[in-house]
Amino acid sequence: MQPVLECVPNFSEGRDPAVIRQITDTIKAVEDVLLLDVDPGKATHRTVVTFVGPPGQVIEAAFQAIRKAAELIDMRQHQGEHPRMGATDVCPLIPVSGLTMEEAADWARKLGERVGKELDIPVYLYENAASRPERRNLATVRAGEYEGLAAKLEDPDWKPDFGPAAFHAQAGATAIGARDFLIAYNINLNTTSTRRANSVAFDIREKGRIKRAGDPLNGPIVQDEQGQPVREPGLLKGVKAIGWYIEEYGIAQISMNITNVRDTPLHIAFETTRQRATARGMRVTGSELVGLVPLQVMLDAGRFFLEKQRRSTGVSEEELIHIAVKSMGLDELGPFDPHKKIIEYQLRAQRTDPLLAMNLRQFSNETASESVAPGGGSISAYVGALGASLGTMVANLSAHRRAWDQRWQEFGEWAARGQAVKDRLLALVDEDTRAFNAIIAAVRLPKDTAEEKAARHKAIQEATKYAIEVPLQVMETAFESFELLKAMAESGNPNSASDAGVGALCARAAIQGAWLNVQTNVPDLEDRAFVQQVMEKGKQMAQQADAAERAILQIARDQMKAG
Predict the structure, then answer these.
(1) Are β-strands 4-7 and 46-53 bridged in parallel, bridged antiparallel, or unpaired?
(2) For the chain, which ranges sit under pLDDT 70?
(3) Same fold, 183-347 and 352-562
(4) Which residue is catalytic, options 78, 82, 400, 457?
């Protein structure tokens, strides 16, 4: 999966569905961007929109939405309960997977610069994109709201980060920033008491509870030198929590917002709550996620609970998610469908991977048909994935071998590496076919005029280069599995040495097959410097693959004889 960025712009319109629809239509029009949620509020006169996708496309969608909002919303007529200063009041970017917070902040700056330059809207950067410390807090940036904006812009200390220091009467100003993903999460208790649920919530939430002298419930409030109440901090950083009773379920819950999942991962929030509930005579029975969650959050949770069991964490993505769901009781109040609850899975649903969706017979039949794709490149990637899978299997068998209980972590780490190689090679199965189809599409472009001929030639060259890069990735990725396979042949479960040997055969076949695909495409590429670099790299890797296969097969044979 490529990097995923989330954007949650807040528009100052919550009452006119036609206006909201026009804004969200601009978002849906951007390719590879997935609109997840549109939440209008009449009282606040504000709509919160959530969409995700690759960073570049998300920034394009955000810009187009900000442009449309500036056209349709007139802040001179706006009244609502929520603080606001612009047609697009705030536009936070949230790194979901595959990019850092600093990278998200860089994208926020790029978006802010474009909004300021092309739309003449004053832009303030906030949170992790802030240009100075005093602008990190959104409430500070928005102080005075729209009504005080004209005077604010005249203050040199409040010169916008981008755009003119001039009042835009219709659109106002926009705050653009980068922040952490917020997870809305409820934990179920075997009690109906809101008061007892709150006692646990106060234990865990970052701001904790007000300190009292003597009796912790009814004693006098302890005050500091300024006469302000002293607080006893809670256990979990970046967590807001409160207890409430849910009549629909007949139980009390601890409702929390995890505002920084790096400081407090989901599984730590669950485990800490479970421990505090137990200490107070209650039991956690399950939990529920409100909205969507990044894939990594679920994978980290699955690994955490497997490690507690002293089991290998090198299992499939699907099994990690299953362990996480069952360990935290995420399906207690209703089914938990990963394809609906995990952001990356929602995105994958928009992207077609027809080969991976087939069963083994369908895949074999499709390969055997008169169609030229899938061909040797896709098959090479799949064979490589099978080789990595065999090495991973040996690692997991070794981790669970009764006599080797103390080595579960060692073999689990090998298995996790194998799973990563397997998943990357599986992704390349369909990618190789897409690369081939891109060449066909480029060849079919019109060529009647000089401009069309030039565009067609450029498209063919770009597609050809990618059709070389994909099998080269197959070679490089499959080559990584040799280290795993060698280790498993040498020190893994001796009863599975032959499986490691078969894995080595698969890895070499994947590399040599992908190498043939590289060589068949390089004659058509005009970038000879790139071709020379690829040919040298590919030839060396193919030779090394032959040697690695022979060495692993010899180790496997020796182990089989010894056994």
Answers:
(1) antiparallel
(2) 1, 216-217, 351, 563
(3) no
(4) 82
